[in-house]
């Protein structure tokens, strides 16, 4: 069982503090947390601080991790210029930092992940010859193949069609539940956040505005203040909450 908590976390770009004072409740094994907020709010910056790519004040407290490097990170920019096939790139991600001997288990796991993400048919295509959505799926596979206990995904579904979005979010939710992973997903689609997340963390102007149950956090008031939109949260016939946007607020 792994647990993650941010305590007064901030992050610098150069000498400037872009994210400040983020203190979250304890995030636990099996949870999926949607990180939402406007453009340039600091979501990617916060992720980079959690992974250690960026420095800053405060503590990223991880309890109960099985290994030293428990964090997997899928960056927002999934462009690739390495001359590798999809399969090679996933195998390379699997073996990074380990011995180069490839076991049957490694190969089986690669097949499993590729099947789950529906990318088996492009296994031997060059990375440079993929569509934006295909690249995004390969990038998810590269992060998952390392079996992280905490997975940070920066807008993993932004280039995917609706079917693939639901497939990927559903798959990540199952991964969180069955493997006891903590999954943090930066995402702009608030309806997908409402549908899949156990918790929603709102970042605005480099600060945490709220963190809690989706229904408590995604409110008309928050949407007006943080996103400057007039919106209602209404239940559909299946009793799921949906954001219905009426227009922009000034
Ligand atoms: N490498 C960098 N150097 C300097 N400033 C940066 C750098 N990367 C990001 N920033 C700044 O940090 C702030 C937060 O950016 P960040 O990418 O974290 O936002 P975001 O919430 O992920 O936005 P988006 O939803 O648009 O992806 C922005 O003002 C941005 O200009």
Automatic annotation (TrEMBL):
Q: Does this entry carry the keyword Nucleotide-binding?
A: yes
UniProtKB keywords: ATP-binding, Ion transport, Nucleotide-binding, Transport, Zinc, Zinc transport
Gene Ontology molecular function = ATP binding
Q: Residue ranges of the ABC transporter domain?
A: 4-230
One Pfam match? ABC_tran
Q: Which PANTHER family match?
A: IRON ABC TRANSPORTER, ATP-BINDING PROTEIN, METAL TRANSPORT SYSTEM ATP-BINDING PROTEIN TM_0124-RELATED
Give the similarity note: Belongs to the ABC transporter superfamily.
Q: What is this protein called?
A: ABC transporter ATP-binding protein
High-level lineage? Bacteria, Pseudomonadati, Pseudomonadota, Alphaproteobacteria, Hyphomicrobiales
């Amino acid at each position: 069982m792994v647990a993650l908590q941010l305590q007064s976390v901030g992050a610098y770009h150069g000498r400037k503090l872009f994210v400040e004072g983020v203190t979250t409740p304890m995030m636990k094994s099996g949870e999926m947390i949607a990180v939402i907020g406007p453009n340039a709010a600091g979501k990617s910056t916060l992720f980079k601080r959690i992974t250690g790519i960026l420095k800053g004040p405060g503590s990223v407290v991880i309890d109960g991790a099985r290994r030293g490097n428990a964090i997997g990170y899928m960056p927002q920019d999934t462009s690739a210029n390495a001359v590798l096939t999809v399969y090679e790139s996933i195998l390379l991600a699997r073996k990074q930092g380990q011995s180069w001997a490839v076991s049957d288990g490694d190969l089986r796991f690669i097949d499993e992940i590729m099947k789950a993400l529906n990318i088996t048919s492009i296994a031997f295509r060059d990375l440079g010859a993929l569509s934006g959505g295909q690249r995004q799926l390969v990038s998810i596979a590269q992060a998952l193949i390392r079996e992280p206990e905490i997975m940070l995904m920066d807008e993993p579904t932004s280039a995917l069609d609706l079917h693939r979005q639901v497939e990927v979010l559903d798959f990540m939710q199952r991964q969180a539940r069955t493997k006891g992973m903590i999954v943090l997903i930066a995402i702009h689609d608030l309806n997908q956040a409402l549908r899949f997340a156990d918790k929603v963390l709102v970042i605005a102007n480099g600060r945490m505005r709220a963190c809690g149950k989706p229904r408590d956090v995604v409110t008309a008031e928050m949407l007006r203040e943080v996103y400057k939109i007039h919106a209602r949260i209404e239940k559909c016939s299946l009793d799921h909450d949906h954001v219905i946007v009426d227009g922009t607020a000034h």
